[in-house]
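Allow me, if you will, to draw on your knowledge of protein folds for a short while. The matter concerns a single protein, recorded as an amino acid sequence and a row of backbone structure tokens. Kindly check, if you would, that the fold set down in the tokens agrees with what the sequence suggests. You will find the record immediately after this paragraph.
***
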Amino acid sequence: MKILIGACILLVSLCILIVYITYRQVFYAVPKADEDAHDIPGGEQYKKIEDRMHTLIGRMEQLPYELLFIQAWDGTRLVGRYYHVEDGAPFQIQFHGYRGRALRDFCGGNKLAREMRHNTIVVDQRAHGRSTSRTITFGIKERKDCLSWANYVCETFGSDTPIFLSGVSMGAAAVLMASSLDLPQNVLGIIADSPYSSPAAIIEKVCRDRGYPTSVMLPVIRLGARCFGHFDLDEATVIDAVRRTRIPILLIHGEDDRFVPCRMSQEIWSACGGPRTLKTFPGAGHGLSYMVDTKRYERLVRQFVEECMQRQRLKNS
């Protein structure tokens, strides 16, 4: 009997250890204020454009900015860089990707926003950069952080300030999931570059790519999220959120995205309940559409923003 009890305890301990290790691998992160924005992923897709990325990041590092600190809905301290262009200008709030770098992921998008004469807040997502928390939740908690930042802009700069939410990869999924929350009326549009359709869907895809048995891994990952991350991986999906929103959405996706399949943006586009546009970029990898065809990318974003602003002007007239 003692041997049986001991074996059961050992088995349970081993299961808990496996769940914890999985949580650490997938969700755990230690924020670092001194993250290197020039840490560009390897691979041939980045090799072609890394010099240009370094240049854009370097220029962004030289710009004056103000550090903003806000408290999220759950007490997490969130930090962002505020780049002021002019008083009364529209705001873009920009959210980077999974284990990403704010300046790296938006070295192009922020340049475009400034050229459009938009003020910007480039956010360190929870568990990244200067923000606190040690759990990345693939948009489950981050979507509510988007709401916190939008409310901050309203309270600080006025409820009539036009706001656009912009995200790349996990940041794109987060802003899309935020679209079904009680966002301020002055959030006029959402720009989502390379989003996935749900947290579970992208995790399953990555597991499959790495040869892991998804029927085993997904339950373990879900359990790790609940036990150690204190969140439900299936609490929200992009698909469910966009069905309920009427906020205009611009979806951008590289056709050669090997991390988040382009079909996920197509699924999101099909599910949208409000105005939506999907533009794909031939030859572009994950989050690299701006780098592959900058002129087209800029033209599409400018056109989308102007349409949203015009829609708001007609609404107010």
Observations:
- The first helix runs from residue 2 to 26.
- The longest strand covers residues 77-83.
